[in-house]
Every structure is written in C-alpha cells, then in structure tokens.
Design brief:
single chain; seven-stranded mixed β-sheet; mainly beta
Length: 113
C-alpha cells in the first residue's frame, strides 16, 4: 500500500520559514517523480514544485520561485520542501503527491501575524 506522510506544517509569521517532509512507503521511491501540491479555498489546487526521480528537472510555480526548494533523499524515501520568506498567500494545505493518483494526508501551513 502506497503511503505518503507529510509533516512539518504549522503557524508561522510572514517572512518566516518552514520545512515540510514527506515520508513514503509501499513503493520504490527512487523510481518516481514527486511533487508538492497545495490547496486553499481562495486559490484552489496548484502544483507548487516537482522533481524527477533522480532529483533533476525541478519545477516551481512562479509564485514560489526563489523562495521554496524541493529536494529528496532517495535513501530515506523522503521528499522535502524548504519554504522561506513565507507570506499569507502561501497559506494552504500542502500535499505530497506521486503522480495524479497518490496523495498524502496533507499538512496545514498558516502564515499569519
């Protein structure tokens, strides 16, 4: 069974940082591209960042370029998202995703003073 367990969300002030982690199991992590996707009622669903199985071909949506960094540790079967210079517009539930069909349970990120 594929499992994607995201963690690391929370409440942070504007300008602050958070690091999300996604521990995975049930599949060969090192064989698959991975993504972080976020959802908010105001903006809907959006892919924030993604990368290939070998960590190359990194994609960022325009609004997070220069502020977010996606990475992975294939030895630990874990995906990461370092988020810096956070703003209220980054408030959302963040999901670790593998393809269109596999999603973790999500972790809430709230940016507020």
């Amino acid at each position: 069974e594929v499992q994607l367990q995201a963690s690391g969300g929370g409440l942070v002030q504007p300008g602050g940082s958070l690091r999300l982690s996604c521990e995975t199991s049930g599949f060969t992590f090192s064989n698959y591209p991975m993504s972080w996707t976020r959802y908010s009622p105001e903006k809907g669903l959006a892919c924030v960042a993604s990368l290939y199985a070998d960590g190359t071909n990194i994609y960022y949506t325009d609004s997070v370029k220069g502020r977010f960094t996606i990475s992975r540790d294939n030895a630990k079967s874990t995906l990461y998202l370092q988020m810096d210079s956070l703003s209220a517009e980054d408030t959302a539930v963040y999901y670790c995703t593998m393809g269109p069909n596999y999603w973790g349970q999500g972790t809430q990120v709230t940016v507020s003073s």
